[in-house]
Amino acid sequence: MGQEAPPAPTGGTMARAVAYIYGRRRKVRWKEVVGLWRVAGSDVPVKLVVAEVAGYKKRFTLVGSALELTGLEMVELFAARFRQEDGFRDLKQRLGWEECRAWTKNPIERTSQAQWVTLSLLRLTQFALESAGEVDWWYRPPWRRKKDRPSVLDVDRLLRQHRGEIQRFLAE
């Protein structure tokens, strides 16, 4: 985790530190308090943390039962957990797992392997062509011109555009 956090202030000031959040080191200001929260039960203490993280407009408001953690550690863990959720979203939306309808283990494994192979081949192609000096080797989608590399979803869209031709070729 990040550097050791100073004790939380009790007045109107907020503690300050730098922590690794969302892929880089960021300045964090936070305040924490331990109290009882009716939702958790009248006898269960919880820690409330309010934090401002550099690069984000909205404050983070966290409630947790891990009283041994500092407010800074709670913010770091929340950010790490959120990155996992980003990964699940990527698997579902960008790698196409939401399209995989399966009732057994085999189709899930085959779909995942095909997607990972596709993504690996895209990256290898990207690295080889860029090392050879090619910069515009793939079609950037008009809705995202600054995109720096293709995704499995881009390959899926390309194949769907040529579905009829592929089906005719395979039928021969």
For the report, how would you describe the main beta sheet? 4 strands, antiparallel
Give the H and E element order. EEEEHHHH
Average pLDDT figure: 79
Enumerate how many helices there are, as a single number. 4
Global geometry: elongated
Q: Which stretches are poorly predicted, pLDDT < 50 over at least 5 residues?
A: none
Structural commentary:
The structure is a single chain. With 172 residues, the protein is α+β, with helices and mostly antiparallel strands. The chain has helices spanning 71-94, 105-131, 152-161, 163-171; strands spanning 15-21, 24-36, 45-53, 60-64. It has 4 helices and 4 strands. The mean pLDDT is 79. It is 41% helix and 20% strand. The longest helix has 27 residues, at 105-131. It has a 4-stranded antiparallel β-sheet. A hairpin with an 8-residue loop joins strand 2 (24-36) and strand 3 (45-53). The chain is elongated.
In short:
With 172 residues, the protein is of the alpha+beta class. Helix content is 41%, strand content 20%.
What is this structure's SSE topology?
Blueprint: E1 15-21, E2 24-36, E3 45-53, E4 60-64, H1 71-94, H2 105-131, H3 152-161, H4 163-171
Antiparallel strand pairs: 1-2, 2-3, 3-4
Task: Quickly list its features.
alpha+beta, 4-stranded antiparallel beta sheet, 41% helix
